[in-house]
Write a structure and sequence with these properties.
- The protein is of the alpha+beta class and 220 residues long.
- Helix content is 35%, strand content 23%.
- It contains 5 helices and 7 strands; from the N terminus they run H-H-H-E-E-E-H-H-E-E-E-E.
- Keywords: Aminopeptidase, Hydrolase, Protease.
């Protein structure tokens, strides 16, 4: 596919609105985090999320709210969760796709409640893997394909299993899907600033938990 088409935007596109959508989406994610408590189910957490979105003035969702708890943190967005409640010492992640001012935010992060040092190490590893991969994009000019090859090497070197089904994607003024850009991990050019989401999902190689982190690739 023509890389120019893959990075096409609509007539309403504004880079500052993209950054605003990103900031508001992170505010929403942390608002949901404040409502997470032992005993809550994923569906109950999503109901709490709706209250957060209303308070922040979200216009709409562009993808369903994903909240994964415990062993469900190893599942991809296409897989259905098993019924589970957040334990006293447990891990969960939040994945949001929200629209503010006609532009798409897409953020995700992983958290631990109670005392779960191994799960915390996994959450920290996902954030660090995102950081070093984003830095490789900034400083080495890597293509989307090369970015995920880099992420896999880094994950292997630190003892985590990278989920190969999660490969990032475009965002823009809503709806980005009109551009049919494909996955970041299949993009053969260097991704432009402020148009692509880098997604990282890892799992423990033998234990039933994982972690997720995603954010907009930006030059700063």
């Amino acid at each position: 596919m023509n890389p120019i088409h893959q990075e096409a935007v609509g007539n309403r596109f504004d880079p500052q609105h993209m950054l605003h959508a990103r900031e508001r989406s992170w505010a929403a994610l942390h608002g949901i985090r404040e409502r997470m408590r032992p005993g809550i189910t994923e569906d109950e957490a999503k109901a709490e999320a709706a209250k957060v979105f209303t308070a922040l003035g979200m216009e709409r969702l562009w993808h369903p709210v994903i909240i994964r708890i415990g062993s469900n943190t190893t599942k991809t967005y296409r897989q259905r969760s098993e019924p589970v409640r957040l334990g006293e010492n447990d891990i969960y992640f939040i994945d949001l796709g929200l629209v503010f001012e006609g532009h798409e935010g897409d953020v995700g992060d992983t958290f631990v409640v109670g005392h779960a040092p191994e799960q915390q190490a996994c959450a920290d590893a996902a954030r660090e893997l995102f950081r070093v991969t984003a830095d490789a994009w900034r400083h080495q000019g890597l293509s989307g394909e090369a970015l995920y090859a880099f992420a896999e090497q880094q994950a292997d070197a630190t003892g985590w299993r990278l989920n190969h089904e999660i490969k990032g994607h475009r965002v823009s003024d809503f709806p980005h899907s009109v551009h049919k850009a494909g996955d970041l991990g299949e993009y053969g050019e260097r991704p432009s600033n402020g148009l692509w989401i880098l997604e990282i999902q890892i799992a423990h190689p033998t234990e039933p938990y994982g972690a997720f982190y995603e954010d907009l690739l930006t030059a700063d």
